[in-house]
Amino acid sequence: MKFKKKIFEEVIKNGKYLFVYPILSVFLLQEINNEKNLSINLIGTLVKKKF
């Protein structure tokens, strides 16, 4: 569980935000330099608890 929490915290800290009420989406694109030119896309979604 700690690993997932660290990933989510990284997305929140370094990601770009897109807000469309009542949803806040945060995304982080990471490129991996290797032979296959892979990339990792991380997405977090936050919604108000009362909604």
Question: How would you briefly describe this protein structure?
Answer:
With 51 residues, the protein is α+β, with helices and mostly antiparallel strands. It has one helix at 2-14; strands at residues 16-20, 23-31, 39-47.
SS element count, helices: 1
Strand content: over 45%
Helix content: 25-40%
Radius of gyration: 13 Å
Structural class of the helices, strands and pairings?
alpha+beta
Please describe the biggest sheet, giving its number of strands, its sense, and whether it closes into a barrel. Answer: 3 strands, antiparallel
* Adjacency order of strands in the biggest sheet: 1-2-3
- State the end-to-end distance: 26 Å
H and E string: HEEE
Q: Mean of residue pLDDT?
A: 76
Low-confidence stretches: none
Textual characterization of the structure:
- The protein is of the alpha+beta class.
- Helix content is 25%, strand content 45%.
- It contains one helix and three strands, in the order H-E-E-E.
- The chain has one helix at residues 2-14, and strands spanning 16-20, 23-31, 39-47.
- It has a three-stranded antiparallel sheet with strand order 1-2-3, covered by helices on one side.
- Strand 2 (23-31) and strand 3 form a beta hairpin.
- The model has no long low-confidence stretch (mean pLDDT 76).
